Amino acid sequence: MKEFRYTITDKIGIHARPAGELAKLSKEFQSEVKIRAGKKEAEARRLMAVMALGIRNGQEIVVTAEGPDEAEASERLEEFFRKNL
Length: 85
Hints:
Elements (H helix, E strand, L loop, with lengths): L1 E6 L8 H11 L5 E6 L2 E4 L3 H6 L7 E7 L3 H15 L1
Antiparallel strand pairs: 1-4, 2-3, 2-4
C-alpha cells in the first residue's frame, strides 16, 4: 500500500469539477484508491462519495492506493492534487 498526505490549497476545497476529474483518473488504475479526511473515508472512483467528504481549504487528507499498480497510481494522484487542489 502506498499513501501520501496533502493539504488542500484550493480556496473552495474539493468541489465538483476536480472531484469528477479525480474519479476519472482513479478509474485508470487497477489499484483501489481511497481518500481519508478526518474520520471519514471514500473510494476515489465514486464522485458523490468524494463530494460527501466535504473537504475544505486547508484540510489535510490522506490518499491511499493499494493494488498491482499502486506506485504509479500514488505518483499520478499526488501530481494531480498538486496541480489542481
